[in-house]
Amino acid sequence: MKMTWLHHPQFCPRVLTRRVTDEVLDLLFLLGRAVAARGRYFPLSRGFKPNAYFMAAHRLRRQGLAVQTDLSGNTHQLTLVPAGLRRVSATLQPERLWRQSWPGRWYVLVYDIPESQHAYRKMLRVHLKRLRMGNLQGSVWLSARDIRHDFDDLARAAGLSEYAFLFEAYTVLGQSGPTLAAAAWDFNQLHQAHTWFLAALAETREQLAAGAWSAEKLLALLREQQSAYLSVMEEDPLLPAELWPDNYLGPQVYQAHEALARQIISRL
User: Fold this and answer.
1) Do 246 and 213 share a structural domain?
2) Does 132 share its domain with 157?
């Protein structure tokens, strides 16, 4: 059966460039829960080019993130250890962040970096987005979570304290938490991404149910839909529930992703 792969001109899964090692780690997390629950093993290596997979597996073992168990027939099983589980993308475990209560405090980062240091400014903005901070205005960034340790790391590694200050505030401009969150994060674009993903997965589930799929094609689909999920959730701040806008679809997106992943894995 011909598959219509997940694609959108604005929310293309390939926009999110990922190293194979990161992808293997995340897929081990996803597959590990489902496969272990069924008491069986699936060779993840079948979904990658051999050299790429084995190099990724070697890095994970060398970094102490996974262990390898040799099985019969010259096969092996790669399993994440606790250190590896902690490295899994927060996007694959969003409930941990959604369930956190918000103490009513904001962490506000303000910096003034000379225009001559354009590369430094760009690097900093990329890092702040990875921390899921919101851009309130220009060089003013906002977080609903305590980022003091991250600020300290940046101060030590990149000399950020020379250009920036981190404030803790209970109110900012006298606005409510949800109102301020709406100003710092682009929830309209996020809603578009979530809506597209839910529609695309509904179509994918229909195609999956209607045809016969080889193990290799199922693994390719699993990688594709996981990449699409990470892509649309990359801009999601994963805020505590009391700061969500009324049209926030994050939980529905996560549940749809998990449901399709289970459906694919059940047929491997």
Assistant:
1) yes
2) yes
Interatomic CA distance for residues 230 and 89, integer angstroms: 9
Verify that 116 and 81 share a domain, yes or no: no
Instruction: Return the number of other C-beta atoms located less than 10 Å from residue 260's C-beta.
Output: 20
Handedness of CA 84, 96, 7, 189 (dihedral sign): negative
Q: Which residues pair with 68 in a beta bridge?
A: 78
pLDDT in tens, the chain (268 residues): 444 555 554 544 443 445 778 888 888 888 765 444 344 555 676 667 778 888 888 888 898 988 887 766 566 677 888 888 888 888 999 999 999 999 999 999 998 888 778 888 888 888 889 899 999 998 999 999 999 988 888 777 667 778 888 999 988 878 889 999 999 999 999 999 999 999 999 999 988 888 788 888 888 888 889 889 998 998 899 999 999 999 999 999 999 999 999 888 888 7
Q: Which of 142, 169, 196 is the last residue of a domain?
A: 169
Rounded CA-CA distance 197/224 in Å is 12
Separation between Cα atoms, residue 60 and residue 79, nearest integer Å: 10
What's the half-sphere exposure (Cβ side, CA atoms, 13 Å) at 92?
A: 20
Q: Which domain holds residue 131?
A: 105-169
